[in-house]
Design a protein that fits this description.
Chain A: It is found in: Cell membrane; Membrane. The complex is a heterotrimer of chains A (99), B (536) and C (631). Chain B is an all-alpha fold and 536 residues long. Chain B is built from 21 helices and 2 strands. Chain C has 631 residues and is mainly α.
C-alpha cells in the first residue's frame, strides 16, 4: 500500500483533533482531541520514517509518547482540580487568565 | 601608582549613599548629618583635584585606566580636562547645599503618617519604608554618578552612567514631591508620577538612540576609548564616511539635546521641576542637565568634528528658539517653579549656542555658563523653595508684599533673580556676554537675536519679583518668617560665590581656556579675526 | 595719585556693602555712614582735581589697571580706570551733587523706617555711576551702566508697598534693558571690528574701518543713550520714575544718571565724527525729545512730572549738542553740569514743598507758598531763572551756546535745528513759569487730604535747606564761571576736541532771539496762570493738552502694542507649548495606549480563542514557507 495514504489519514486525524479542540467545551473532550492530534503527528512521523528509510521519525514518535503521557498526568490533574473547585469541566468557565 | 583621586571623588558619595541608606529608620537626623558629611568630604576631594590640576599641562590629567570588559574593549578610563574639572567641582559644591536645603523635605509628613496608620489594602506590612534615608541616599547616588560621568573618558562607561543616573532621579522626582500643591493629595501624586514617568521616558528614548550610536561607533572604531578614537581620527588612521559620521553624531546629539534640554525636546523639564521638591529641581537643572551640555562639548565636537560643523546651522537656530521661546514662556507662567524651569530652558539655549558657535569666547563662555547657571539657578530655586514651603503654594498669584514681612528672603530672592537676568557684577553676566560675543563674531544675526534674551530675562524676573515681593501685604503672607539660620547658610555662600565669580572669574577661565583651545583644534576652527588689528 | 582712583569707587561701594548687609544695628547711624563715605569720595575727587590742574593739558589723564577681569583667548576685558578731564568733570558733579543729596535725604527720609537701606542704595548708585564715568573700556562702562540701572530700579521702587512704585521701577529697568541691548551689541560690533573695546584703541582706530560699521556702532550707542537718558522713543519710563523718593529724582533722574547717555555719545565722539548718518540720527533724537519733553512738561499738574518733562527736554538739548559733533561736545557737557545744579535744586525744592504739604504733588493744590517757605521759594526761584536762561545765570550761558552751535551746523539743517532749539527755549520759559506761578504765587488752594488733615506748610529743616542753597549758588554762578575766558572749553578741549563752525547769524543775534522767545514764553504763562485764578480741578483742555497729559499717547501705544501684544503672544505660546509641542509627545503616548487597549481585547481568557490564533499563526507560517519555496 502506498505509504502516502497514511499521511492522508494523519492529516485527517489531526484536523478532527484540531476542530475538536476549537469547538468542544468539555475539558475532557478537548483533552482527548489534543491526544488525537498528538497521535496524528506520531502516525505522520512513523510514516515519514518508513518513507525515508531511517529511524529518526520513530525515535521522535517515542519522545512524543513520553510527552503525551506527561501531559495526561498534568492535564488530568488540572482538570480534576478545576472541576472540584468549580463543579464544571467547561473550558469557557475558566477564563480568568486575561488582562 | 598614585592615589586614584578621581575614583575616590566619585566613590565617596556612593559609599555615603549606602551608609545613609543603612541608617536605622528611627535615626533620621543621623542619616541627614551622615549625608552632609559625605558630601562635604567629596567637596574636599574635589578641591584637592582642583589644586592638583595644572592648567597648562596635559589635556587630560589625573588619569586612571583599567581593563573592564576585555571582550569589547571597554575600559574604566578616567581623566579630567578643565571643562570636566570645573563641572565636577560645581557638582561637588552644590550637593551640600542641596542636602542642607532639603533638610526637612523628606521628613514624614502628617498625611503620610496618617496613611500608614490607616493601612490600606496595599499596606499590610508595617510601615518600614525609610523616606528620609532614601532621599539623601538617592541624592548622593546621583552625585556619584554625575561626578563619574564628568570624569569618564571611555564612551561606554559614560553611556552607562548617563543612563544609570536616571534611576535615582526617577525616584527622587516621583517619590518626593513638593508638598506645596494645589488640589488633593491623590491628584498631586498623579501629577508627580506623570512628571517622573515623562522624565524617564524622554531620557530613555534619548539614551536608546545614543546606545545605537555607541554601538555604531564601536563597529566603526573598534574601541570605546575617547583618546584612542580622537588620536586615530587626528592621525588619519580612522576615517569615517561622511554619512556614517553624521548619523552617529545625530544619535549622540539627540540624547544630549533631550537631557540639556533643547527646544522642542524640553517639555519634560517644567513638569519635573514643578513637581519635584526644590532641592531636587536644583539637582535636575543645575547638576544632571549639565551632563547633556557637557557631553556635547566632550563627545559631539571631539568625536565628530565634521558632522558638528555640518549640523551647526540647525543647532544654532534651535538654540535661538530655545532662548527666546523659553523666555517668553517663562513670562507666561503662573507657577514659580515652572517659571524658573522655562528660564533654565532659555539659559540652556545660550549654552548650546556658545558651544556650537565654535569660537574661543563662545566655548569658554558656554563652560562658564554651565558653572554660573548652576550656582545662580540653585540660589534662585532654593530661595523660591523656602518661600513656597512657608506659604504652601507655588502659584505666583498667592503671594504679594513678602518684602515687607521677610526682607532678607526678598533680598536674596532678588539677588538670585538679578543673577538670572545676568546683571553685570554677578557671575552669569561674564558667561552670557562671552557667549554673545563669541556667537556674534561667528554669526552676527544669531548674536543679535540672542541679545533679545537679556530683555526678556529682565521681564520674567522682574515681573516675578514684583508680583510676589512688592505691593500690599497679602493676608496669607502676613506673619511669614524670614530666613532661618540653616537657610542663610545655604543661600549666602552661593551669593558670595556669584559675586566673586562675577568680579574675578580669572581662576575659572584659567582652568577652562586650555581645554577650550584643545576643543577648538579638534574641530579645526580658528576665531574670526577682527576687521582692524587695533593699534596695540 | 593713580591709586586714589580706585578709592573713589571703593568708598561708596564700601558704604553700600556695610549698610545693606549691616542689619538693624546700623539703623541709627546708617545715614551718617552713607553721607560720610559719599563726602569722602567727593574729597578724593577734589584732591585728584587739584592734582590734575597742576599738570599740563596733555598729560592730565590718569590710568590705572586693577586686574584682568575676563581673560579669554582673543578677548581681554580689564578692570581698569581712566580719569581724564571729561571723567573728572563727571566725578566732581556726581560726588558733589551726590553728597549734597545725601545730606538732604537725612532730613527728607527722617521718618522712614528703612532709611538705612535708602542710604545703602544711594551709595550703591554713586559707586556704579563712578564706575560708569571712569571706566577705560566699554565693557566696564557697561557694568556701571547696568549698575546705575539697578540702583535706579531699587530706588524708584523704594516704597515697594505701593504697586505704582513697583510697576514704575520695573518699567524703568525694562526700558533701560532695551537700551542696554544696544550697548551690548555695540560692544560686540567693536570686538569684531577692532578686536578690543577699550576706549583708546577703539577710538584711535576709527579711520581704519568702513563708515557702515561705524554707523552701526553709532546707532547702537544711540539706542543705549536713548534708554538711559529717556530720549524718544525710549523715554516713557522717566515720568513714572517720579514714584521714587524726591532726592532720588533729583540725583538720579535729573542730575546724573540720565545724563549718562550724553557722556556715552561725547566719549564716543570719534566714532560719531566718522559716521555722519549716526550723527544725524543723534540730532534728530535730541531735537524731537527736546520738544516732546517740553510739551509734556506744559501739561502736567504733578510738580515732579512737570520737572521730569523738563529734564527730558533739557537732555534733548544736550543730545542735540552732542550730535552736532565737535562744535557741540563741550557745550553739551557744560549744559549737563549747569543742568545738574539747577535741576537738582529744583527737584530738592519740589521735595521741600511736598515735605511741607503732606506729600501733595498736584500743583493745582499749592498756590501762594512763597510766604510760608521763603528759603525754598528763593532757591527754587533761582533755579527757575537759571533753567529758563535768564541773562547772567548758569542756564543762559550753556543753553545759548547750544542754540548758537545748532545754527552753526550750517545749511537747512542748521536753520531747522536752531529754530527747534529756540522754540524749545520758549516752551521751557512757559512751563517753568507755570510751575513757579502755580506753586508759589496766587491764592492758597490747599485742601485737606483723604484723612482730613489740613496741610500746614512750613519751611524744611536745615539739613534740607542747606543743600538747596548750595545748589542755588551753583545755578547762579556756575555758567558764568565756566564761560568767562572760555575756561570750560579749554579744560575739555584736549579730550573732546572743538571746532567753531560757520554760524549764519551772529552770536549776538542768537542771544537777542533767545531773549525774545524767553519773554514771550513767560508772558503767555503769566497771562494764563498769573492773571486769573487757577481752578483746582484741571479743565478738560484742548486735544493737545489732553494728549500731553498722557505723555503724548506714547504710553497708550506701548500698552496696546507691547504690553497687550506681548501678553497675547506669551499666552498663545503657553497654549502652543502645552497642546502642540507637548501634545505631540502626549499624543504618541495616548495612541500607544489606545493601540494596546485594543490589542488587550484579544486576550479574552478563552482557551479556544488562543488555540485559534495558534492554528491561524501556524497556518500562516506554513503558507509563507511554501510560498517562499515556490517563488
Amino acid at each position: 500500500m502506498n505509504p502516502v495514504n497514511y499521511l492522508y489519514l494523519a492529516a485527517l486525524l489531526f484536523t478532527i483533533g484540531a476542530a475538536g479542540v476549537l469547538i468542544r467545551r468539555n475539558a475532557i473532550v478537548v483533552f482527548m482531541c489534543v491526544e488525537l492530534m498528538l497521535n496524528a503527528c506520531n502516525l505522520a512521523f512513523v510514516t515519514f520514517s518508513r518513507m525515508h528509510g531511517n529511524l529518526d521519525g520513530q525515535i521522535i514518535a517515542f519522545f512524543t509518547m513520553v510527552v503525551a503521557a506527561a501531559e495526561v498526568v498534568v492535564g488530568l490533574a488540572i482538570i480534576v482540580s478545576v472541576f472540584r473547585s468549580r463543579h464544571s469541566a467547561s473550558v469557557d468557565d475558566a477564563s480568568l487568565m486575561k488582562l | 601608582m598614585s592615589f586614584p583621586l578621581l575614583t575616590a571623588t566619585a566613590a565617596l558619595p556612593a559609599i555615603g549613599a549606602i551608609a545613609t541608606a543603612a541608617v536605622p529608620a528611627a535615626r533620621r537626623t543621623t542619616a541627614k548629618w551622615l549625608a552632609l558629611l559625605f558630601s562635604l568630604a567629596t567637596l574636599v576631594l574635589a578641591g584637592i583635584a582642583l589644586a592638583r590640576f595644572e592648567p597648562g599641562g596635559a589635556r587630560y590629567q589625573l588619569t586612571e585606566s583599567h581593563a573592564w570588559i576585555k571582550d569589547f574593549g571597554v575600559r574604566y578610563e578616567l581623566g579630567v580636562d578643565g571643562i570636566g574639572l570645573a563641572l565636577m567641582a560645581l557638582t561637588a559644591l552644590l550637593i551640600p547645599f542641596v542636602i542642607l536645603a532639603g533638610w526637612h523635605d523628606a521628613d514624614p509628613s502628617p498625611s503620610s503618617q496618617l496613611r500608614s496608620s490607616r493601612g490600606g489594602p496595599n499596606e499590610t506590612k508595617p510601615y518600614r519604608w525609610r523616606p528620609t534615608q532614601g532621599f539623601f541616599a538617592l541624592i548622593l547616588m546621583v552625585e556619584a554618578m554625575v561626578i563619574l560621568s564628568f570624569e569618564a573618558t571611555d564612551v561606554f562607561l559614560f553611556y552607562i552612567l548617563f543612563e544609570a543616573m536616571l534611576i535615582p532621579m526617577y525616584f527622587l522626582i516621583g517619590g518626593f514631591g513638593d508638598r506645596a500643591h494645589t488640589g488633593s493629595d491623590e491628584n498631586a501624586a498623579a501629577q508627580r508620577s506623570y512628571a517622573a514617568v515623562k522624565f524617564l521616558l524622554y531620557n530613555l528614548v534619548g539614551g536608546l538612540i545614543m546606545l545605537a550610536a555607541v554601538i555604531g561607533l564601536y563597529v566603526v572604531a573598534g574601541t570605546f576609548s575617547l583618546s584612542e578614537i580622537a588620536e586615530a581620527r587626528a592621525s588619519g588612521s580612522l576615517s569615517m564616511a561622511t554619512s556614517t559620521e553624521r548619523w552617529l553624531f545625530l544619535g549622540f546629539f539627540f540624547a544630549f539635546a533631550v537631557k540639556a534640554p533643547l527646544w522642542p525636546l524640553h517639555t519634560w523639564l517644567p513638569n519635573a521641576m514643578g513637581e519635584a521638591t526644590s532641592p531636587v529641581a536644583v539637582l535636575i537643572t543645575a547638576v544632571v542637565d549639565k551632563v547633556g551640555t557637557f557631553a556635547m562639548l566632550r563627545f559631539c565636537l571631539q568625536l565628530f568634528p565634521e558632522a558638528s560643523k555640518w549640523a551647526t546651522p540647525v543647532i544654532v537656530v534651535l538654540a535661538l528658539i530655545s532662548i527666546v521661546y523659553g523666555a517668553l514662556l517663562a513670562v507666561g507662567q503662573r507657577d514659580i517653579k515652572r517659571l524658573i524651569a522655562y528660564a533654565s530652558i532659555s539659559h540652556f539655549g545660550f549654552i548650546v549656542l556658545g558651544i556650537f558657535a565654535m569660537t574661543s569666547q563662545g566655548q569658554s563662555g558656554a563652560t562658564l555658563y554651565m558653572v554660573n547657571h548652576g550656582i545662580s539657578t540653585a540660589a534662585l530655586m532654593l530661595v523660591a523653595g523656602f518661600l513656597i514651603t512657608r506659604r504652601g503654594s507655588r502659584l505666583i498669584a498667592d503671594y504679594g508684599g513678602v518684602q515687607k514681612v521677610a526682607p532678607v528672603l526678598a533680598g536674596t530672592f532678588l539677588i538670585g533673580g538679578l543673577a538670572t537676568l545676568s546683571l553685570p557684577g554677578l557671575a552669569p553676566f561674564v558667561s552670557e556676554f562671552l557667549v554673545l560675543v563669541g556667537t556674534f563674531s561667528a554669526y552676527p544675526a544669531a548674536g543679535i537675536v540672542a541679545t533679545t534674551g537679556i530683555v526678556l530675562a529682565a521681564l520674567y524676573v522682574l515681573v516675578l519679583y514684583q508680583r510676589t515681593m512688592t505691593g500690599p501685604v497679602k493676608a496669607e503672607v502676613q506673619g511669614m518668617a524670614d530666613l532661618k539660620v540653616r537657610e542663610l547658610v545655604v543661600v549666602l555662600p552661593l551669593i558670595a560665590l556669584l559675586l566673586f565669580l562675577g568680579v574675578y572669574p580669572k581662576p575659572l577661565t584659567e582652568i577652562v581656556n586650555p581645554a577650550v583651545q584643545h576643543t577648538m583644534s579638534d574641530v579645526q576652527k580658528k576665531d574670526p579675526q577682527p576687521e582692524v588689528e587695533a593699534a596695540k | 595719585m593713580e591709586n586714589l582712583i580706585a578709592l573713589l569707587v571703593a568708598a561708596p561701594l564700601l558704604g553700600a556693602a556695610v549698610l545693606l548687609c549691616g542689619g538693624r544695628r546700623l539703623d541709627r547711624a546708617g545715614h551718617w555712614v552713607g553721607t560720610l563715605l559719599a563726602a569722602a569720595s567727593f574729597v578724593i575727587g577734589v584732591v585728584l582735581f587739584l592734582d590734575m590742574l597742576g599738570k599740563g593739558a596733555e598729560d592730565r589723564a590718569l590710568h590705572q589697571k586693577l586686574f584682568s577681569w575676563i581673560p579669554v583667548e582673543g578677548f581681554q576685558a580689564d578692570v581698569a580706570f581712566q580719569l581724564d578731564q571729561l571723567s573728572m568733570t563727571f566725578v566732581l558733579l556726581i560726588t558733589g551733587v551726590g553728597t549734597l543729596i545725601h545730606i538732604y535725604s537725612i532730613g527728607y527720609m527722617a521718618h522712614d523706617e528703612r532709611r538705612r537701606r535708602f542710604f545703602g542704595y544711594l551709595n550703591l548708585f554713586l559707586a556704579a555711576m563712578l564706575i560708569l564715568v571712569i571706566a577705560d573700556n566699554y565693557l566696564l562702562l557697561y557694568v556701571g551702566w547696568e549698575g546705575v540701572g539697578l540702583a535706579s530700579y531699587l530706588l524708584i521702587g523704594f516704597w515697594q508697598h505701593k504697586p505704582s512704585a513697583a510697576t514704575a521701577a520695573k518699567k524703568a529697568f525694562l526700558v533701560n534693558r532695551v537700551g542696554d541691548m544696544g550697548l551690548s551689541i555695540a560692544i560686540m560690533l567693536m570686538f569684531t571690528t577692532f578686536g578690543t573695546f577699550a576706549f583708546g584703541p577703539v577710538l584711535g582706530a576709527t579711520g581704519q574701518t568702513s563708515e557702515g560699521k561705524l554707523t552701526a556702532i553709532g546707532l547702537m550707542l544711540l539706542l543705549a543713550a536713548c534708554g538711559k537718558s529717556a530720549q524718544v522713543p525710549l523715554q516713557s519710563w522717566l515720568g513714572d520714575a517720579m514714584e521714587g523718593p524726591t532726592p532720588v529724582s533729583a540725583l538720579i533722574h535729573a542730575a546724573t544718571m540720565v545724563t549718562a547717555g550724553v557722556y556715552l555719545i561725547v566719549r564716543s565722539g570719534a566714532i560719531f565724527n566718522a559716521a555722519p548718518d549716526a550723527q544725524l540720527a543723534v540730532v534728530v533724537v535730541g531735537a524731537v525729545t527736546l520738544l516732546f519733553g517740553a510739551i509734556v512738561g506744559c501739561a502736567k499738574d504733578d510738580i515732579k512730572k512737570a520737572l521730569a518733562g523738563s529734564t527730558m527736554s533739557q537732555i534733548g538739548y544736550m543730545i542735540l549738542a552732542a550730535g552736532l559733533g565737535p562744535i557741540g561736545y563741550v557745550f553739551a557737557i557744560m549744559h549737563l553740569v549747569t543742568h545738574g545744579f539747577f535741576k537738582a535744586g529744583l527737584f530738592l525744592g519740589a521735595g521741600s514743598v511736598m515735605h511741607g504739604m503732606n506729600d501733595e504733588v498736584d500743583m493745582r493744590k499749592f498756590g501762594g507758598l512763597r510766604t510760608y517757605m521763603p528759603v525754598t521759594f528763593i532757591t527754587f526761584g533761582l533755579g527757575y531763572l537759571a533753567i529758563i536762561g535768564f541773562p547772567g545765570l548758569s542756564g543762559f550761558f550753556s543753553k545759548d551756546k547750544i542754540i548758537e552751535a545748532a545754527f552753526a551746523k550750517g545749511g537747512a539743517e542748521g536753520w531747522i535745528l536752531g529754530s527747534v532749539a529756540l522754540l524749545g527755549a520758549a516752551i521751557t520759559a512757559f512751563y517753568m513759569t507755570r510751575v513757579m506761578l502755580l506753586t508759589f504765587f496766587g491764592e492758597k488752594r490747599w485742601q485737606p487730604d483723604a484723612q482730613g488733615n489740613e496741610p500746614h506748610p512750613h519751611e524744611s529743616p536745615k539739613s534740607m535747606t542747606i543743600p538747596m542753597i548750595i545748589l542755588a549758588f551753583g545755578s547762579v554762578f556756575a555758567g558764568g564761571l565756566f564761560s568767562i575766558g572760555d575756561r570750560f572749553l579749554n579744560w575739555l578741549e584736549p579730550v573732546t576736541g572743538h571746532s567753531h563752525g560757520h554760524a549764519p547769524v551772529s552770536a549776538a543775534t542768537v542771544t537777542a532771539a533767545t531773549m525774545v522767545v524767553l519773554v514771550i514764553g513767560v508772558a503767555i504763562a503769566w497771562a494764563m496762570y498769573g492773571r486769573k485764578p487757577v481752578p483746582v480741578v484741571a479743565p478738560r483742555g484742548s486735544l493737545l493738552t489732553r494728549a500731553a497729559r498722557r505723555d503724548l499717547l506714547q504710553d497708550d501705544f506701548n500698552h496696546v502694542v507691547l504690553v497687550r501684544g506681548g501678553e497675547h503672544l506669551t499666552r498663545s505660546l503657553v497654549y502652543v507649548d502645552h497642546t502642540l509641542v507637548d501634545g505631540v509627545v502626549n499624543g504618541t503616548a495616548a495612541s500607544m495606549g489606545g493601540l494596546s487597549g485594543r490589542l488587550r481585547k484579544l486576550q479574552n481568557g478563552y482557551a479556544r480563542s488562543y488555540a485559534v490564533s495558534m492554528f491561524g499563526g501556524t497556518a500562516v507560517v506554513i503558507a509563507a514557507t511554501l510560498l517562499m519555496r515556490a517563488v
